[in-house]
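Ticket closed. Logging final result for Uroporphyrinogen decarboxylase.
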Amino acid sequence: MNDRLLRAARRQPTDTTPVWLMRQAGRYLPEYRAIRGNIAFLDLCKHPDLAAEVTVQPITRLGVDAAIIFSDILIPVEAMGIELELGDKGPHFPNPVRSAADIERLGVPDPVQGTGFVAEAIRRTRRALNDSVPVIGFCGAPFTLAAYMVEGGGSKSYILIKRLLFEQPQLVHTLFEKLTRTLIPYLLMQVEAGASIVQIFDSWGGELSPWDYERFCLPYLTRMVKEVQAKGVPVILFGTGMSNHLPLLKRTGADVIGQDWRTPLDEARRVLGPDVAVQGNLDPLHLFLPREELEARVVDILRRAGPVGHICNLGHGILPPTDPEAAKFFVDAVHKHGFALRQSP
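Final structure:
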């Protein structure tokens, strides 16, 4: 196996810098659109053969160092008993969670019965790749999932979830506890199926102040990280707009802290210290730069991160209008300059 990503996550030496892209299996790839044109997104997530096929597509085309299983962070939430719609305009919950009764109605599903298709997709992906690169499992963090559930979908202000946090904190803790009890077995199921590393997406965690993040999020994330690590699997924790949260994210014990593009990686390393790996952090829109300038951005990121304990990635998911050749150029540039960085005296 090409184990660069796993070695980097554990801050071990690698021959070059490993790289993968968030949303690397998606709408920017014509081969993905060819499959997606005949099936709804949620159905595709639940079809192990097709989910495995689109998971493998960017490995073949781009040469990335890991395959992230094709799924969605809201899959385990649907299994809790809430109706979910996933369309081109994003997720929508027709009956959002707003009360104690709504939370009481949510179940804690058996992961195999409720989401076993994700495990099967991982197994089929490993077979298709012949274990040539690691498979990344993932889930959303309790706050991010709760935000979708309470708001009924995406939000600009997050007023509903934040009011619930501040006006009825005990109710929120009840919801987060139920989510955590769902997410830990869900991640462990993915590990059992063959995921060699997992990423927890706290996409909207940056909407909270550090004080609120410590109070409402940190205990649950710490439990999740420890349970996965107990199986010998490293954990990546990622969120956007969280530069002020870095000391808290470190306290979770995660092996790798993912960065968006707003924080230089040398600054992140200064705050996090030497015992945590970093991931990131090219702005996804930098893939639209002229090649020479894109390459210069790659070199700058690699120099700031250093040769050990860095997984190169975008600072968020790749965007649908992106030229696949630009993504390929990025991956190749990371490998080329990552190797050169290790040859420097």
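The chain has 16 helices and nine strands. No further action required.
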